[in-house]
């Protein structure tokens, strides 16, 4: 019998994180992100889910005094994204992020999507047009906006704005996409659209998603990590975590005994 193993796209190795002033928010987290799979981070408020996610694209660099220890290694090139000398801007092109609240720039739909490409130095209109179209299609928004690309992004609905943010993140061809509670500000229909889109994106990239919604984690993810007070308590196949977790703490959380 041939066993096919899924390659690892990235992994944190003994990752610790300290907020300015010393708050030890992540405690030695070692965890893989499998290639073209969705990994969900769950756990009660304040357990470190967003902190972990934000390490991947060096968001914490934007505030002085924060400190990482350990590594986040991307494969196959073995780049430690936290290493000195690694350009955080380039990391954010490879590992892009979608936030909880849709946060389009005060620009046109077109310019929102073209933004990262322009930062990269792309000036050729033909290339920009093609890439914008491809990203809008990838975010399942093209049909709704193809005739109004010069409209202000703020004129879109909340769900459309979130798909625009996904298109903006897709435009630079990232290898990993981080989603921080991407549907918590959306209605159920927009939520279903984003979940479907995430399932489709899995065909081309690796996803790490923070969610408070355990049904959502169970619906969309392949792997689930349960965190508590900065520790990784349990990590495994989503089916196993939700039906037969190994740790009592995980079971208590997913059955709603606390949190
Ligand atoms: N900017 C900050 N400065 C100092 N401490 C912070 C900062 N942001 C978060 N923390 C602390 O780090 C810990 C982890 O917070 P984090 O936001 O990562 O948790 P979370 O699991 O994502 O929570 P939530 O589900 O509420 O978003 C908490 O103790 C929190 O108070």
TrEMBL record:
Under SMART domains, the record lists: AAA
- Listed SUPFAM superfamilies: P-loop containing nucleoside triphosphate hydrolases
Which Pfam family would be a valid example here? ABC_tran
Keyword Transmembrane set for record: no
Q: Give the gene name.
A: pstB
NCBIfam families in alphabetical order: 3a0107s01c2
Q: Which GO terms describe its cellular component?
A: membrane
EC class of the enzyme, as a word: hydrolase
* Organism listed in the record: Pseudomethylobacillus aquaticus
Q: Which GO terms describe its molecular function?
A: ATP binding; ATP hydrolysis activity; phosphate transmembrane transporter activity
- Please state every residue range assigned to the domain named ABC transporter: 10-254
Superkingdom of the source species: Bacteria
Q: What UniProt keywords are attached to this protein's entry?
A: ATP-binding, Cell membrane, Hydrolase, Membrane, Nucleotide-binding, Phosphate transport, Transport
InterPro entries, per the entry: AAA+_ATPase, ABC_transporter-like_ATP-bd, ABC_transporter-like_CS, P-loop_NTPase, PstB-like
Quote the EC number: 3.6.3.27
Q: Which GO terms describe its biological process?
A: phosphate ion transmembrane transport
Please state what the protein is called.
Answer: Phosphate ABC transporter ATP-binding protein
């Amino acid at each position: 019998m041939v066993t096919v193993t899924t390659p690892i796209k990235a992994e944190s190795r003994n990752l610790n994180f300290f907020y300015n002033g010393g708050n030890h928010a992540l405690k030695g987290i070692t965890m893989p992100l499998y290639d073209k799979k969705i990994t969900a981070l769950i756990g009660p408020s304040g357990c470190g889910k967003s902190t972990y996610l934000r390490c991947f694209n060096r968001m914490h660099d934007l505030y002085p005094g924060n400190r990482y220890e350990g590594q986040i290694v991307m494969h196959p090139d073995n780049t430690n994204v936290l290493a000195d000398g690694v350009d955080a801007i380039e990391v954010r092109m490879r590992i892009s992020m979608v936030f909880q609240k849709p946060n389009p720039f005060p620009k046109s739909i077109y310019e929102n999507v073209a933004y990262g490409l322009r930062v990269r130095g792309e000036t050729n209109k033909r290339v920009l047009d093609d890439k914008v179209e491809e990203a809008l299609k990838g975010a399942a928004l093209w049909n709704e906006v193809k005739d109004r690309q010069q409209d202000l992004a703020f004129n879109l609905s909340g769900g459309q704005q979130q798909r625009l943010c996904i298109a903006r993140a897709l435009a630079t061809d990232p290898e990993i996409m981080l989603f921080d509670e991407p549907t918590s500000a959306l209605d159920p229909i927009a939520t279903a659209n984003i979940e479907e889109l995430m399932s489709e994106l899995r065909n081309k990239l690796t996803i790490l998603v923070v969610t408070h919604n355990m049904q959502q984690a169970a619906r969309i993810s392949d792997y689930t990590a349960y965190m508590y007070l900065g520790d990784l308590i349990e990590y495994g196949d989503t089916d196993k975590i939700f039906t037969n977790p190994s740790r009592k703490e995980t079971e208590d959380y997913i059955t709603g005994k606390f949190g």
